[in-house]
Amino acid sequence: QAVPAGSHVRLNLQTGEREAKLPDSGSGKSEAREERRRKRLGKVDVDSNSFTSQELKKALAKMKESEKAERKVRKESSLFLKQCALQVRKKFRPIEQLKEEFEKLNVKMETDYEIMVKLISKFNSSASTLDEKVAALYDLEYYVHQV
Q1: How far apart, in Å, are the Cα atoms of 71 and each of 56, 58, 60, 82, 122?
Q2: CA 17, CA 57: separation in Å to the nearest integer?
Q3: What does the CA dihedral 64, 68, 74, 80 come to, rounded to 10 degrees?
Q4: What are the pLDDT digits (tens) for 25-77?
Q5: pLDDT, tens only, 10-36
Q6: Most buried one in 14, 25, 30, 64, CB count within 10 A?
Q7: 21 φ, ψ to 5°?
Q8: How far apart are CA 66 and CA 47, in angstroms?
Q9: What are the two backbone dihedrals, phi and then psi, of residue 109, each rounded to the nearest 5 degrees?
């Protein structure tokens, strides 16, 4: 149910019902506020009894038209995204497929994570020299900086 602007609305937690109260018209303050609201809204009459069935039907038709237009835009954008995804799939291959192809060429391809794990193990190894540990830290700094 639509309520006029400026109404006091609350949810009664005991009954679970929503309640609305029109502002008190006894004070001059609320009348001035109501007058400002009328000026802001222009010639729109917010009293629910003043809308004719034709006006309501027109408003509903406009809402349905805008909803159809929104659905059409969503459908078009979803089709566009699918086309973009297909183009990307044509240009790029999964990393597993690339690894298999490199293995056939006897080239080992490692991810950054794998390289970082090796560098950390080299740094923690007691068999590594001081120069190897420093080099591992410099290389590790490079990879961490990328992340």
Answers
A1: 22, 20, 16, 16, 57
A2: 28
A3: -170
A4: 655 555 666 666 666 555 555 555 567 778 888 888 888 888 888 888 888 88
A5: 888 888 888 888 877 655 555 666 666
A6: 30
A7: -135, 130
A8: 25
A9: -105, 130
**Which residue is associated with the tokens 């740094």?**
123
Q: What amino acid occupies position 82?
A: K
27: tokens are 């004070």
Total number of residues shown for the chain:
147
